[in-house]
């Protein structure tokens, strides 16, 4: 008989679960009367009936049109400026991360990606930053980006990332499989199918049934061509009418009157020759005039001025304005970015800027996806299961002062909601800062400007009424009193209640620091061993964390040694402070003419030992809670770093209520310690009687111990455990016997020996 291994058991359980899911999906499909496959046809399939299978580009997105766009963006000043602005705004730096499947950072993977990003894009000067610039330019110009990942012959490393001209790539439907393939036409006229695991095409704003991208600036072609024709016409107009010119008239009648007789005798041909030469000489003379020469001519020549300000021409301003507006719109730019200062309100300007930035971010998202896919291929060939994440630096879209003003308004609204009792302080804090409140709110109470007549204090009845309805809540700096501790029957109760509130805040901050440290350890922890997961998932009867899981959490995440020492140091500070205060009050009560010795060796040893014991107890509870919380997350089969961290943030171990429990226990324990050693130093106390706090919170064992009297140097027996005084742990009392204990003892002083004997007998 073959023994079934744990791994076989796990596989059988997994197959059973998968089969159950499959059958469930089949039943759902049958019940819903769903059909598989596709019933509709794409527009290009209906139109072309597949001929060679190529999905034809729309003529406005052909390669010739894209080449024209490339020319326009370089020779047209507006297009060139638009490209310049877009590239500088779209590529202001980025962050690269490498994450394990659990969500924790992969440091080795990130090191590899950083080295890779420094050497890709060699054609453009090297570096992913320059390659991203090329992709941004292509996306803005052509409405699509394409990238190829070149691998070495061994398929274990990346040679380079190559930006590909999207216009050279086409899509084709495979006749046999029906799949859409990315292809490129070769020199011999055939089409080569691209490996879509290494060659990526990302379109922007594709139309229905059209896998090709749409150029954002395609409309600029039409307006630029129109602009060129208009400028040609304006050039001709300016040439003919833009400046003044000489209007020289030759007076033919005057010439004919002055023809010499010998020329006239030569007949018509002689006269024609003489007149032509005469006019030629005039033309030559005027052409040879210098700018400062004076005119000297016969009455056969008349000189006037033509053109310039004397002529009239069409006003081209309106036409130019229309063209400029069209250019701005076609380039998806703001007028101010192209040097056109159009008046607008601050609000409208802000909205326009946000829209412009949103357009930039849409291109960035496409570049982000394609670069992450390329990086993931690189990680894959390296044998890593991690994934890359690229994040562009944010482009500011709002004014900081406006943001601050809006934040102040929202905060004041939340304060009003808390004051009105509509939401709790914690709810308001979560919305405002993302975590629960660290203290109670402060209500500002101010008297109205007009006070009631006859009111000597100058405060109106309305203000007094408001004060009465809404008590002043104090922050930690104003010292609240812990009501639980305040009810303790002791002369020092009120003072210690204030210290308890301070300690609660201090311990809560300390717990949050511990939570941050554990969360960081969680991110950097190695992946959970497969054998551990197999052991956990293979047994359906497991309800509590198994030893292997506990060991992994302690080693990889908790690292409790330093944390225990930190807690001990924190506790010792408070124990010394509180015991000194209650010791001084105790000696003052006994009217002992001595000062409390806070450096008493026995006292310091007792405080040191208590801080170590309690630190181990506190840390033990924290570790146990963390282990149980992580166990629950893992066993739900939804384990990620984010979910585990969120679960820890909601756990009792790091809550404000736990900080309060620790504070009450330790501050009361320290207060009783100081009182006890104050009695010791006085030399006046010979006995003590246990007194219980008689209310519903009192433990049965503590109530039963009420009235128990012993000699001062002896221990009480409470619930079968020894305590020198309420809250004492020096003789091994358990946590259930000391946590938040409000019991106390009364003294039997010297000279009351008979009373002590009677009380002790009564106690028996």
Please provide a written account of the structure:
This protein is 53% helix and 11% strand. It is built from 25 helices and 16 strands. Strands 1-5-6-7 form a 4-stranded antiparallel β-sheet. It has a 3-stranded antiparallel β-sheet with strand order 4-3-8. It has a 3-stranded antiparallel β-sheet with strand order 13-12-16, sandwiched between helices. The two termini are 69 Å apart. Residues 443-478 have low confidence and may be disordered.
Mind summarizing the main beta sheet? Answer: 4 strands, antiparallel
The number of helical runs is 25
User: pLDDT under 50 segments (min length 5)?
Assistant: 443-478
For the termini, the CA-CA separation is 69 Å
Shape: elongated
CA radius of gyration? 45 Å
Strand content: 5-15%
Structural class: alpha+beta
- Residue share in helices? 40-55%
Strand order of the largest sheet: 1-5-6-7
Query: What is the residue-mean pLDDT, rounded to a whole number?
Result: 81
Number of strands: 16
Which SSEs are present, and which pair or pack?
Blueprint (H helix, E strand, L loop, with lengths): L5 H27 L10 H6 L5 E2 L7 H13 L1 H14 L3 E6 L7 H13 L8 H15 L1 E8 L6 E7 L4 E5 L6 E6 L5 E3 L5 E5 L16 H22 L2 E7 L1 H6 L3 H4 L2 H21 L13 E7 L9 H14 L15 H36 L5 E6 L7 H20 L5 H9 L27 H9 L13 H4 L6 H32 L5 H8 L9 H12 L1 H30 L11 H35 L5 H10 L5 H27 L2 E7 L8 H5 L4 E3 L4 E3 L2 E3 L20 E6 L3 H11 L1
Antiparallel strand pairs: 1-5, 2-11, 3-4, 3-8, 5-6, 6-7, 9-10, 12-13, 12-16, 14-15
Helix pairs in contact: 3-4, 4-6, 6-12, 7-11, 13-14, 17-20, 17-22, 17-23, 19-21, 20-21, 20-23, 21-22, 21-23
